Amino acid sequence: VSRQLKEEIRRGFARLEDPLAGLLAMLESSSDWKGKGHSLGYCITTELQLWIKTHPAVPQSGTKLKKLQTRVLGMLSQCPTNLLDPLISIYQLHTADRNCLLEHVSHLYLQGNYKEAATLSIKLKLQPDQDVEKMCTPLLLQDKANLVEDYVAEYPELQRKLLQTLDKWCDPSFNIRDITRPYQGLSRYKPEKFNRRVLSKLVFRLLERFNVDPALCPNVINQRHLRTLNYLFYKRFVEKTMTEENWADHIQSTVGENRWLQGQLVQSLLRHCDACGAARWAQRCQVPPEMLPQAVAEELQKLHIQDRVEEVTKADNYEASKKKDYYQIPISRENIHFLQTWEETRQCWEKVLQPGQVVGVDMEWKPSFGMVGKPRVALLQLALKDEVFLLDLPQLLKQAEAEGEKEKLSRFIQMLYSDTAITKLGYGMSGDLSSLAATCSPLKDMEKQMQGVVDLLAVDKQVDGLSPEHSHEERGVRQSEKGLSLLVQHVLGKPLDKTEQLSNWEKRPLREEQILYAASDAYCLLEIYERLCKDPESFGLGSDLTDSLVGRQSKKPRAKKQLNKQEAPSPSGQECQGPRTEPSGRPAPISPREFSVVCDNMLQGLGRYLRCLGVDVRLLDNEDDHRKAAEIARQEGRVILTSGLPYQTLRSQVGEGRCFSVNCSEKAKEQALQVLKHFNVQVSLRDIFSRCQ
């Protein structure tokens, strides 16, 4: 609205004897304000609302105000949503007679204006005096679940009543037509959006949003568990991709002592096994004998308590002979460490938090099978070149809390993810970090602070699906790989064995198969990264990995400028040798002409930028081995600029302080600033373009 118009509106109010009555008269005689958007009527109304704040004597009271309130209520059903709040404020409708307000809303409801009735009820906070089922049913039939959520948002008792109503409707024996019949002529009625499946999803959404105990909704919870049960039987007996141990863990966890689910389990067992097999599983899952069919009960009597549960079917998932068809972690078992104490974990930190380190990061949690809440991380895997650390997060968090140091874990993870001198490799990092935040609340904003990360999920979308050197079809391996397993197959030649993926990762002790699976999941990221750095063009990636590989995330891009203001005190690119040095150890200033470097072949963009500033730069060609950089550095007295895994090889081949790790997630300009700052190179105007480009 123009300033001139605002001033004219305010002068008009000042001339009126009763501005509140004047506004109503204008709105009643005009249809302009009924449209969507910011009409002239809307502008005048909001200006009056602001004007009243500076003229406290204007608001009416007593009989005169009541008459104005009655007139306003008559207009509200036709009123655009953006005018409700200003009118309610101007005419003080919160002070109006509550019975009068309820009667008006009831009139709207009886006219079939269900949305308007609910919206006005929310604005005037009338919900505690209304029937939640009656108000919300037509809204759900019109697919207005968001309005229903808003209607109960501030009232825990109404939330519980609504959830109990929805759960009653989800009972398989309940006839949903009993609900829909009175609303057959309802406008905008969407019957396809009103069924048990949709209502069940809404229940779970409300349970999570309002943090209500799921026990309040037994029908929905049982049906979700039944779907989980059917899924587990499919994975075990049809797809044959779940081990007996994993399957048994999840079956017992899903069924528990729920008698109804135990009955469903017995029926499923009889469909997939003979009576003897069903009896063995019934024994293992502690199903009461009285719930079993006679044939199964008779078999159960023959079994001895000490009997080991045998395979229900003879169809084994994967024979040991097929293991050679899957990716195998190349380090020995003794270099895979399962950490449950902080004393052990500190030794892990010292190795992981080294400048120039490259770390494969993965996480595991117990499958939720669609239940309420985000999964909590049970295992954090950190893979280095020579060893893998598996951190038992529940145990470490419990120990830290007992010692009064709750923030211990979050501090370590924040240091790791925010350090630009450490390259973190992951696959689908957003999902992992979301679960990590649910496990450790101080980490909820971690994704905004991430630096020096490589999300291989983004790379996966760019890598050409080249056939591996050896055809897996010839070896009889299923060709249904996906996700990280498929990327491992494309880049390293063999897929991951995902048999343990759906394990119960909260159960202790972990089985040996789980430990090897978890270590492999993190370590394969190192091997993929190294292979792609060495030969990017073979996989359809550009030779400049700054653009095609490094620094991309699976979801939200980082706001680099904002992050640069919040960087940790340590330099963004650390000297790649030994412990971190204090700022006091900064070298004496030098000019670009005195500074000679050799850039690794993934930093060609940085090399060209430094040359523009007058630095003496040698660039490795795309086909050059990284070790050639060390050879040139020794012969010509140059500093090596590199990034990622090649640093591991190069740092030991040159003197201290002669190898520098650059943050590959930054663009060439930011990388150059890191280098110049670290080596205290002072660039003057005459240095720019002083060398042949």
TrEMBL record:
It comes from the Eukaryota. InterPro entries: 3'-5'_exonuclease_dom (IPR002562), Exonuclease_MUT-7-like (IPR052408), Mut-7_DEDDy_dom (IPR037432), Mut7-C_RNAse_dom (IPR002782), RNaseH-like_sf (IPR012337), RNaseH_sf (IPR036397). PANTHER family: 3'-5' EXONUCLEASE DOMAIN-CONTAINING PROTEIN (PTHR47765), EXONUCLEASE MUT-7 HOMOLOG (PTHR47765:SF2). Residues 336-537 form the 3'-5' exonuclease domain. Gene3D superfamilies: Ribonuclease H-like superfamily/Ribonuclease H (3.30.420.10). Residues 544-591 are annotated as: Disordered. Residues 553-563 have a biased composition (Basic residues). GO terms for molecular function: 3'-5' exonuclease activity; nucleic acid binding. One of its GO terms (biological process) is nucleobase-containing compound metabolic process. Residues 565-575 have a biased composition (Polar residues). Keywords: Exonuclease, Hydrolase, Nuclease. This is MUT7 Exonuclease. The gene is Exd3.
